[in-house]
Amino acid sequence: MTNGIVSLGRAKFSMTGAKITELFERLARLSNTIKQKEGYTSSWTYAFPDGETHRYVLTGLKSHAEMKDAALNLLIWIWCAKDYLKELAEMNGKGGALVEEAIDNDADLPICLDLANVAKHADLKWSRSGLFPYFADISFEIPQEAIGSITFTAYEVQTNVADPKLAIVTLPVFDQAGNKIGDGFAYAERGITALEQILHKIEK
Questions:
Q1: Is residue 159 within a helix (H) or strand (E), and if so which, with residue range?
Q2: Is residue 10 situated within a structural domain?
Q3: Which of 158, 164, 170, 180 is a plausible cystine mate for 57, CB 3.0–4.6 Å?
């Protein structure tokens, strides 16, 4: 026991305004990361039904893996923010139940928390949203005006993206029945807004 605080299994820290500010600044930085599409070179192969394999090379954009990593990092920190806010609510005499109830009443946060758990554990044994959401493959849509050049060789296509900001990057999210329910990037952005609203409730 130290200063009346008992630690059972983990250290007990005071949740300060500075820590909350740092949390939301981190969320903002991670949010900016998923909006930054400029990158170097990525490539992948595709085997056609006739057995012929072609290689595709993309320059100027982040790779599929880098974009997905950015989304998962943001979702995991949204999941972590729940505990920050619960501790702040308890310190303000409002109780952590306020945060849990606000999450359950939000359309996006339960899905954000489920997706963060998928990222952490690769599977869901329980779903807060009840939808057991999961990610499909990330995809790029590159409009013609964004393309600097395309080079074709016998079994390779090289595409240079001159204006990455015009590219549309999506991370489809499906429910357990196989229905598309949204986009991972959009869920994360709306999740941050929902966390800010919960913070306002705590600070009232």
A1: strand 156-161
A2: no
A3: 158
